[in-house]
Amino acid sequence: QVQLVESGGGLVQAGGSLRLSCAASGRTFSRYDMGWFRQAPGKEREIVAAIRWTGGDTYYRNSVKGRFTVSRDNAKNTVYLQMNSLKLEDTAVYYCATKALALTTIAALTSGYTIWGQGTQVTVSS
């Protein structure tokens, strides 16, 4: 059974940085795309960033481009989200997610995520 466990959330002032981690277990991590999503109170869950299983392709939503960086360490079965220059509007619960299908090359990085972590709260204060 696949498990995803996020960590690294917390309270940070605007302009600050946080690094989220998501540790995966239960299958061969290196074969699966990984994504980071977030959900703010009263809003829909939205994709923030994603990384192909090869590590060679990434996606960022426009509002985080240039501030967030997604990366993965297959030796540690972990995906990261480095968040810099945080803004008030980045406040949300952040979720790590992965797909049921392995070795995807054509499927969009932004869809197909069906396995979720429990989430970690990120709060940006002024």
Please outline the helices and strands.
Layout: E1 3-7, E2 10-13, E3 18-25, E4 34-39, E5 46-51, E6 58-60, E7 68-73, E8 78-83, E9 92-99, E10 113-116, E11 120-125
Parallel strand pairs: 2-11
Antiparallel strand pairs: 1-3, 3-8, 4-5, 4-9, 5-6, 7-8, 9-10, 9-11
Oligomer: single chain
**Low-confidence blocks of residues:** none
Strand content: over 45%
N→C terminal distance: 40 Å
Radius of gyration: 14 Å
Helix % is: under 10%
The count of strands amounts to 11
Overall, the morphology is globular
Order of helices and strands: EEEEEEEEEEE
Polypeptide structure, described:
The protein is mainly β and 126 residues long. The protein contains no helices and 11 strands. Strands 2, 4, 5, 6, 9, 10 and 11 form a 7-stranded mixed sheet that branches. The chain has a 4-stranded antiparallel sheet with strand order 1-3-8-7, with no helix packed on it. A hairpin with a 6-residue loop joins strand 4 and strand 5 (46-51). The model has no long low-confidence stretch (mean pLDDT 95).
